[in-house]
Amino acid sequence: SVTVLLTAQVKPNKEGEFKTFVAKCLKETRLYDGFINIEIYEDKITKGSFVFYEKWVNIKAYEAYLSWRTEQGVMDEIGAMLTTAPVITYYDLVDI
Question: Where in the chain does DSSP place strands (E)?
Answer without folding.
Answer: 2-9, 35-42, 49-56, 87-91
